[in-house]
Amino acid sequence: MCENNDGPDKSWKGSCGTIMGKTENFRMKKIVIITNIPSPYRVDFFDYLQRHTNAYEIHILYASRNEENRSWEIEKDKMRNSRFLDSYTIRIPRRFDTKYIHVSRGVAGVLEELQPAVVVASEYNPTALQALRYCLKKKVPYISWTDGTLNSESGLNWFQKRLRRYVIGHATAFLASSTKSREAQLTYGADLEKCFISFLTVDLEKYTIQRAAVNEKTKQILCVGSLIERKGLDLLLEAAQGIEEDYILALAGSGPEENNLKKLVQSLGMENRVKFLGYLPQKELKKEYGKSTIFAFPTRQDCFALVILEAMCAGLPVICSRYADGAYDLVDEGKNGYIVDPYNKEQFRRCMQELLRNPKRAEQMGGESIRRLGRFRFEEVCRGFWDAIDCVLNI
After folding, report:
1. Which residue has the higher pLDDT, 282 or 17?
2. Closest by Cα among 27, 94, 59, 80 to 256
3. pLDDT tens figures, 342-357
4. In angstroms, what CA-CA distances link 148 with 198, 200, 303?
5. More confident residue, 85 or 116
6. Using CA atoms, how far apart are residues 339 and 290, in angstroms rounded to an integer?
7. Cβ burial, residue 90 (10 Å; 0-12/13-18/19+)
8. pLDDT tops 60 at residue 294
9. pTM
10. N or C: which end of the chain has fewer CB within 10 A?
C-alpha cells in the first residue's frame, strides 16, 4: 500500500485502492499493466507498486523485449509477474528517429487466463487496441495510460488522431505521465474528473549523489541523450560556440549522428571544448553529473525527458528546451533552471553563460532542483495510479 505519514495503524481510505489497516476482508484482485518494452524506470516503478500493495496482484505484459536503439540495463529480479507477449516489430524510419510498432498476438488469450479486475494499457498501439477490445467484451475497466503530448505527437495523421479519440472514448479512466500528457488526453475527449497524473519518474535514490568540488577552471556543461537529430545537439553546439567563459561541453550518448556532430564541432573550431563520452553505464554517468556545473538539454521534441530529473538529483541547474514537455513539471523558471527555445541561439547562450559566470547562482539553483524532487518520488507518483484504480472500481 502507498505509505501514510500517519503510520500503518490508521484506518483511512488512501490512494492504494483499499482501507489501510482493514485489508483482511479484501480479496487479491488482479491488475494487468500492458506496455511496450521493459525500461529501467518503468520496471523500478512497477516493482514499487507490487511491493507496496496488499490489495492487488499486479501483472506486467510487455509487447517486446527491447528495441535496437536502447542499451538499457534491467534488474531481472524486479521482473516479477512479468511476461513477454508473442509479437513482431515494424520498424519505421523517420526524420528525427525511428519508430517501433510492436504487433502482439494472442493478447485476449493471455488476459482471459489472468482474469484481471482492471487493465491499464499504454498508448494507442495494436497491443493496447486488442486489450481494449477484450475489456469492452468482458466489461473489464480499461485505463488508458500515455506519455504522449500534443508536441511529441504533432505529426499525427487523421487516422492516428481518430484512433486516439476511439481509445479515449471507450476507456473507463485515464493516466497521464505529465500535465502536458493530460492536456493531450483532454484534447481527444477525456473526462477531466477521470484523468489522473502519475508523473514519469526514476528511482531517485539511484541518481542522488554527493557533488564533487567544481574546479573553477574546468566548468562543465553536460548533455545526456542519444546522438540523433531529434535531440538537438547541433543546436547546443551552435549556441555554445560564442560562450566567453572557460568550459567543457560533455556529450554523453551514442547514435547515428555522431560523425556529423564531430564534423560540426570541427567546423565551429570547438575541438578543445567538446568531449564525446559515448554511452555511459549508470555508475559512470553519475560521475559526470557529479562533476558538472550545468545540465543542458536542447531537444527538438521529447514527451518528457527523464534526464532532466536525473540531473536534478545531482543538484544541477537545468537549461532545457521548451520542446521537452516534462520541463513544465520539472523546471521552475528562474529558480532551478530555465526553459529556452533551442533555436534561439542568443537566449540559449546567454542562460549558459550567466550560470558559468555566477557559480553561486548555479549552486543555489542546483539546491532548488534537489528541493523540487519530492513530488517525483515513487510514494508520491503512485498516488495518481491508485486514484485511477479506485475510480474505475468505485472504491
Report:
1. 282
2. 94
3. 999 999 999 999 999 9
4. 13, 11, 6
5. 116
6. 22
7. exposed
8. yes
9. 0.87
10. C
Return the number of other C-beta atoms located less than 10 Å from residue 345's C-beta.
17
Q: Which long-range contacts (CB under 8 A, 24 or more apart) does 126-131 make?
A: 126/101, 126/102, 127/34, 127/36, 127/61, 127/63, 127/85, 127/87, 127/102, 127/103, 128/34, 128/167, 129/163, 129/167, 130/104, 131/32, 131/34, 131/107
Q: Tell me: the pLDDT tens digits for 295-319?
A: 999 999 999 999 999 999 999 999 9
SS3 of 153, please?
coil
12-24 burial, b for 16+ CB within 10 Å, e for fewer?
A: eebbbbbbbeeee
Tell me if 31 sits within 8 A of 17, measured CB to CB: no
Q: What pLDDT, on a 0 to 100 scale, did the predictor assign at position 239?
A: 97
Which whole number is the average pLDDT over 108-128? 96
Q: Which residue has the cell 514499487?
A: 48
DSSP helix/strand/coil, 172: coil
Contacts of 369 (CB under 8 A, 6+ apart): 311, 312, 313, 315, 316, 317, 318, 336, 337
The pLDDT score that the predictor gives to residue 71 is 56
pLDDT tens digits for 161-211? Answer: 999 999 999 999 999 999 999 999 999 999 999 999 999 999 999 888 876
Q: Which pLDDT score is estimated for 103?
A: 79
What residue type is 120 in one-letter code?
V
Q: In what order do the strands lie in the sheet with 118-122?
A: 82-84, 56-62, 29-35, 118-122, 142-146, 173-176, 195-197
Can you name the residues that pair with 84 across neighbouring β-strands? 62
Q: Which residues contact 162 (CB under 8 A, 6 or more apart)?
A: none
Summarize pLDDT for 41-84 with one digit per residue, the tens: 999 999 999 999 999 999 999 988 655 555 557 778 899 999 99
Q: What is the 3-state secondary structure (H, E, C) of 43-87?
A: HHHHHHHHHCCCCEEEEEEECCCCCCCCCCCCCHHHCCCEEECEE
Angle between helices 233-240 and 258-267 (to 10 degrees): 20
